[in-house]
């Protein structure tokens, strides 16, 4: 059951990060993204990172790793977010302060959802964002590859399920 939860979290993290990329790819720090996932929560990419990290631990059947990765996120990301919020306030001023007053930092408020009728995208940035979003799935595949090598006795076993 833990493994299935991890798979679901990995897929949600990957698709969520791609969804976010559609709204910021090529525009980050150029304009304030307030639509799509950014209309319901200020840090949807980081929520995706959290889900991906914890999901990875569960998917590889290492719940202690899931908890450890979640803790590392909880300790490390608040300072990253604080630094980014200062930069965004400096760049966008009152508009960003109003956005912060309406949109929660971490827990999505789905009733706020809105999206524009169209988006202007940079294919190069979208491609890069999709490849960046895939690293959770690649990490899982690499883990599974090493597990197979261990099963064949080609690598020593470090963790037992």
General description of the model:
By secondary structure, the protein is mostly helical. It has one domain. Helices cover 66% and strands 0% of the residues. It is built from six helices and no strands. Helix 1 (2-24) packs antiparallel against helix 2, helix 2 (44-59) packs antiparallel against helix 3 and helix 3 (63-92) runs antiparallel to helix 4. The protein is elongated and about 60 Å long. 24% of the residues are buried. The model has no long low-confidence stretch (mean pLDDT 90).
Q: Number of domains in the coordinates?
A: 1
Oligomer state equals single chain
Name the overall outline: elongated
Continuous helix count: 6
List the helices and strands and how they pair.
Blueprint: H1 2-24, H2 44-59, H3 63-92, H4 94-102, H5 123-133, H6 135-151
Features:
single chain, 161 residues, mainly alpha, 0% strand
Summarize, please.
The chain is mainly α and 161 residues long. It has six helices and no strands.
């Amino acid at each position: 059951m833990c493994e299935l939860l991890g798979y679901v979290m990995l897929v949600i993290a990957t698709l969520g990060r791609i969804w976010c990329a559609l709204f910021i790819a090529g525009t980050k720090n150029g304009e304030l993204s307030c639509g799509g996932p950014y209309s319901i929560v200020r840090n949807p990419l980081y929520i995706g990172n959290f889900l991906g990290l914890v999901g990875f631990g569960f998917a590889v059947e290492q719940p202690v790793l899931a908890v450890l990765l979640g803790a590392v996120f909880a300790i490390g990301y608040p300072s990253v977010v604080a630094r980014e919020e200062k930069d965004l306030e400096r760049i966008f001023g009152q508009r960003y302060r109003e956005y912060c007053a309406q949109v929660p930092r971490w827990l999505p408020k789905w009733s706020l959802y809105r999206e524009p009728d169209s988006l202007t995208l940079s294919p190069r940035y979208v491609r890069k964002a999709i490849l960046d979003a895939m690293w959770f799935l690649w990490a899982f595949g690499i883990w599974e590859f090493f597990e197979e090598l261990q099963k064949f006795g080609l690598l020593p076993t470090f963790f037992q399920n």
